[in-house]
From TrEMBL:
Alphabetized CDD domains for the sequence: VOC (cd06587)
Coiled coil: none
Protein species of origin: Arthrobacter halodurans
Pfam families found in the cross-reference section: Glyoxalase_6 (PF18029)
Cross-referenced InterPro entries: Glyas_Bleomycin-R_OHBP_Dase, Glyoxalase_6, VOC_core
Source species, domain of life: Bacteria
PROSITE patterns per UniProt: VOC (PS51819)
The protein's name: VOC family protein
Domain (VOC) ranges: 8-125
Length: 125
């Protein structure tokens, strides 16, 4: 058996000063369900299963810079979220506490920062 066949991605993990609160933000944003929760570790998953998001407590979390620049906390990753209606999705994200990033590199994509400062992109197909 090929060893790679036994490896599956189950979750993407984001560090946060307040992992329970950040998990709540993404649970509401995505319409996902809480799968597991402890004070410093929360997992959410889409209804019906699949790759989820986890949130790990990091008391010294420093939000990444967007856009990246020299001598600034570098973004290690970001989430790309496909939406049916870009305007409605942007309004929903803002109601939940996301802030629109000042730098928008593409006309048909909106970059937002979650309440802990992680960038994520909303786009239509």
């Amino acid at each position: 058996m090929d060893a790679r066949a036994a490896i599956n991605l189950t979750s993407v993990v984001l560090g946060a000063r307040e992992p329970v609160a950040l998990a709540g933000f993404y649970r509401e944003l995505l319409g996902w369900e809480r799968h597991f929760e402890e004070p410093d570790w929360v997992m959410i998953r889409p209804p019906g299963g699949g790759v989820g998001l986890s949130f790990q407590g990091e008391p010294d979390h420093v939000p990444p810079a967007w856009p990246a620049g020299p001598s600034r906390q570098q973004m290690q990753m970001h989430l790309d979220l496909r939406v049916e209606d870009l305007g409605a999705a942007c309004a929903h994200a803002e109601r939940l506490g996301a802030s629109r990033a000042g730098f928008q590199p593409q006309r048909d994509v909106r970059v937002y920062l979650d309440p802990e400062g992680h960038p994520f992109c909303l786009f239509e197909d």
